[in-house]
Amino acid sequence: MVLTPRSSVVVDIRPASEVDFPALLQVQQAAFGEYAGVYNLSGWTTETLESLKDDAREKHILVAEANGEIVGSVRFWTVAGVCVIRLLSVSPPSQSRGVGKALIREIERVTTDAHKIYACTMLRTARNIQFSLNLGYKAETILPDHYDHLDLICFAKYR
Q1: Mean pLDDT score, 92-112
Q2: CATH code of the domain covering residue 101
Q3: CA nearest 39: which of 126, 128, 147?
Q4: Domain that holds residue 142
Q5: Per-residue pLDDT reduced to its tens digit, 123-140
Q6: How many domains are there within the chain?
Q7: Are 27 and 91 in contact (CB under 8 A)?
Q8: Is residue 6 part of a domain?
C-alpha cells in the first residue's frame, strides 16, 4: 500500500466570536472524540456553551475557517511571560492538512508579550508529540497523573 500525504487546506485564521461557539464545540467534540474509550475526556468532549463563554472571557480563542466552515480552534493566554496553549482542535477530515500548524503559527505571530510558548498533550499520542516537535517545540516536562489521571508531555518554544 502506498500512502500519499493529504493535501493542505486553505484556512482563514481569525479570532472567534460568540456566534462561532456552537461550531467550535462540535469540532472540539469530534477531535477529542477520537480518544473516547481510551481516555477519560469528559471535560473536553462535553464542554457546554456556557463554560466556553466563561473561558472566552479569560482567554484568546482562534478559529480556522475553510470554505465558510469552522474546521479548527485553539485557546491561549499569557501569564508572566508564558503563552499557554490549550485545546487545539481540528475536525477529523481536516487533520494532517495544515490546519493545526496554521493555528499555532498564528499564536506565535500575535503573541508579543511572551518569552516562552507552552503546550501539553497526552503522553501516549505519538501523532501529537510529533506535531509539536515538527513545529520546533522541545519536550520540557512530563506531568504524570494529571487531568483525569492522564500523563501529559509538555513542550516549549523560547524566543
Answers
A1: 98
A2: 3.40.630.30
A3: 147
A4: 12-158
A5: 888 999 999 999 999 999
A6: 1
A7: yes
A8: no
Residue pLDDT, tens place only, 42-80: 566 778 999 999 999 999 999 999 999 999 999 999 999
C-alpha torsion sign, points 23, 25, 29, 32: positive
Cell of 98: 495544515
What is the residue-averaged pLDDT of the chain?
92
Cα 115 off chain centre by: 20
Radius of gyration of the chain (CA): 15
Report yes or no on 73 lying in a domain: yes
Instruction: Please give the full DSSP string across 19-55, using - where no structure is assigned.
Output: GGHHHHHHHHHHHHHTTBTTB--HHHHS--HHHHHHH
Residue 1 lies in a domain: no
d(C-alpha 35, C-alpha 88), whole Å = 14
The reported pTM is: 0.92
Task: Judge whether 52 lies within some domain.
Answer: yes
Q: Are strands 60-66 and 138-143 parallel, antiparallel or unpaired?
A: unpaired
